[in-house]
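Risk register update: the risk of archive-format incompatibility is retired. Evidence:
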Amino acid sequence: MRTISPLNALLNLPFQAFPPVEGPLSGYTLAVKDIFDVAGLPTQCGNPGKNHESAAHITAPSVQKLLDSGARFIGKTQTDELAFSLMGQNSHYPFPVNPKAPERVTGGSSSGSASAVAGGLADIATGSDTGGSIRAPASFCGLIGLRTTHGRISLAGTMPLAPSLDTFGWFARDRHLYEKVGAVLLGPDAADFKLNRPLFIPLLEHYLLGEAEDAAFRAMYRHIAAHLGHAKSARQSTASMDDLYLCFRQIQGFEAWASHGAWISAGERGLGPGVKDRFDYGSAIDAQTYEAQTRRRDLFRRELADVLGDDGVMVLPTVPGAAPLVNSPFDDLQTYRERALHLLCLSVLSGFPQITLPLGAVHGAPFGISLLGPKGSDSALIRLGSAVLSAAEGNH
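Archived output:
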């Protein structure tokens, strides 16, 4: 049985040293979510029976790129089981601690990575975002978090969950380092995105939890408006938010079962509550349903691309509010999760990048606001987010 290090974030696996390299990330420490291969270490994906006796031979190329840029590897971080959760509560291990709100969850599935960076254990930590696993923990732990354009950063050497939705992401200790990591992983955008036309979807504010969350969101929005001007209402998708959430859920469920169903069915895997339910749900989705939802996704992607053009940026709440309390009943966590995924699924279905910025707080805990940009505008979004944060810091 593996044990857990401070904050329950870094896994106590055999340490794997890499030769020091000089580069733009020299002097910074790196922790790696335990779905990415690191040569010499097992990739256990949050389940005690997964690859527990076999070590990876090659480090995932995107992780290797960080090492080749000078980052110093310090260990693997805990992940939610098979990366199929949003709360950071893996039933097999002690939960990672949210350093900014210890009575609340970290969010998942990049739970250990968010905890490690927010708590100062690592300067940089890798994560992934299939349904919100960078953006939600970033919002919950007071961090910047970018869901990258789908396919922009390699996921070779990474455990798949839902390949047409999976993306690489990272956390970093501040906005300056976030930009440095982005320059290493992304390089320049293919086009010169201006991102100077703010937009909003009025319906999205209905997913906030209450009046306090609404007030906190409006306070964050004022920082965005001060930088970009006031947002205009965007043309609505032909699909409702409930339709889009169902589209996301069925595509994710079908692909997750395709990725892991054979392994799950081959023996007793001890899947935790919620995770087992989601895999069971995916196992029952047929190919016809999946193909129909894929067509719906394609239509939504075209519609959103038309709305954004090459200069539009959507302003939206990242999640419904502060992170849920650690001791919340299971049903309450599931309700929050579904509400959050209605907000998070827009970037997922479109494949477009979305960055969450730690501009707010509610009930004494962090709360983020997001900017969603056109396909391929990742670096421009990071620069825009950094500028907004810089201006907000100057106003305090």
